[in-house]
Amino acid sequence: MGNAVLDYRDGSIRSFSSMGGTVLVQARDPAKLCEELENAIDGHRYTDVWKLFEQHMGMEGFPRKSIVNMLLASFSESLDVQWLEKAYGLVERAFAESKQNLLEKETMIYLSFCLASSGMPVPASTVLRKLVEMGEFPPVSAWSAILAHMSQTASGAYLAAELILEIGYLFQDGRVDPRKKINRPLLAMKPNTMAFNISLAGCLLFGTARKAEQLLDMMPRVGVKTDANLLIIMAHIYEKNGRREDLRKLKRHIDEAHLSDVQFRQFYNCLLTCHLKFGDLDSASHMVLEMLRKAKEARNSLAAATFVFEAVGSGNTSTRELVSEQILSLKKSDGLENARPNTSLPVSYEEFSRDRNFLKLEAEAKEILDRLLGRLQMQVELITTERGILQPTERIYVKLVKSFLEAGKTKELAEFLIKAEKEDSPVSTDDSALVHVINSCISLGWLDQAHDLLDEMRLAGVRTGSSVYSSLLKAYCKANRAGEITSLLRDARKAGVQLDSSCYEALIQSRVLQKDNEGALHLFKEMKGAKIPRSDHQEFEMLVKGCAEGGEAGLMAKLLHEIKEEQRVDCGVHDWNYVIHFFSRKRLMQDAEKALKKMRSLGHAPNAQTFHSMVTGYAAIGGKYVEVTELWGEMKSFASSSSMKFDQELLDAVLYTFVRGGFFVRANEVVEMMEKGNMFIDKYKYRTLFLKYHKTLFKGKPPKVQTEAQLRRREAALTFKKWVGLF
Length: 727
What we know:
Helices cover about 70% and strands about 5% of the residues. By secondary structure, the chain is mostly helical.
């Protein structure tokens, strides 16, 4: 045996010899090590802290509870990703070694908050979930701030919705008795209106409106009250998901609520967008005309009020101050003032500990919610407000015109635009919206539609200049359409329109190309007799060229861009999606299947929303895994032969159903597809789901004799188990 020398006084390293060579041994006094660890934490020497902590883990395991929580608080307070990851790893290790009793609720909440505010939503949500598992329920005023920071990223917003669903499930249908004193900590965690608003706004901003609708379905079961913000968020969700009837029902509550101009604008923008989605051009155009009528009345009232105000004279300063105050309030309500930047400073652990009711975190959550809602307001593009009066924007005219033209409703389009011109501010005949639309049709080669619109203008008694006739006539000449040229010339003469020299030149050239020399000569004599001077300015060509070169984005330029760039919308898809969603929600899946079959037979291609309704409907019934498997095969086949794209919400719903039912071969296919598309997957949710329903699955040794199918199922289950991190 060799000699061993240990010095316990200074903890220095000594060596002893053995047959295998020299071994280094370090002995430290645990009490002294803890003292050094505390000093390093107090001095924010994070590198030393971690080294000393690892030494303690190697000698004695976890240090005492107070030191563990001091270390977590210090690392969290740094807001440095490196040390936040270390702190999170420590929590994971404590749970792995069944030492979660060392973790204090307050420290865990602070760690989760710091992780979320540093852009790390996945570990932040895991810490929150572990707190709930421990029975250490975080108050909603604290975890709503964590939710708010999470909801500022796509993955975080999805996780925030999952957290609301998980926590809300505990309170569904009055499961928790509020009369019992023992339930007070649990009731303090119950999600409130602000928590729902934050999560719903995050879902909307990152395109997961169907997940948001799941939250809406839960709200009445949890007993959450609506406020003005929630009403507007609901409108956005219904619009995104094509729930027009729900949007109409919501209108009654909107009219009764005390909303700001900005909120009214958002609601009516959603309603107008939904009308367009469903191809209901009558309702959409009626809304626009009604807005124009009210705006005209308001302008007239304002003009009268201004006249009275000016008659009062400059001596009445109090009236002037009142008017100035009203204008300022209008600007504020219309969102014209710049939003205040986020001036909140990082919350220190000491400050956090003193704030027992988490008032600062609650205020921060409210501030972030306001910013999220501000971003939603920026999506409004069809309606604006002027002095508190709703008014249509140029964008809605563009969308309506495109929809009317695609539906072949030129007469209705002309009627709408003529009425709109009467209600709106008067403009010159050559600069009216209808003339811009006709010119756009000519530019796109839609000459028949342009001619039909021009006829409607003439029949309605609306006069127009020669430029639009000239433009269409030249286009007909270029297309060599002799019959239409004759008809248009006759209409122009009836309307008393005098064509310019460039028009005559185009007509003469067309006759020459047709070898109609006599006709060409007749036109030349007519031009000379009318004493029409030769002109080289071509207004329409200049206008089109200006649009093409990115000049001023007027109505014509926007319309051309919309028609050329935007895909044609199949309004029937929204109608059938609503029907299928209705049946699926009522769990009438046979009717939903019939509706899907009818939808296809009518030539409407189902999309991700269609299949999402079907999958969630089957999942709600339970046990319909074979049907979902068949639907999955159908979806893959359909996607490969069409332009349909799988989205995160659809694939997540399919994956959940397969894991719940133990169909791991299919589950792995979905995982592969989601990872290929860089979609976020909540592994914690699926790990929990696996442990709940399949904990003992394929745990022992495999049987000696297995069929190929059994072997495949076993391998798939083990692959999934490994993917979720269970071994």
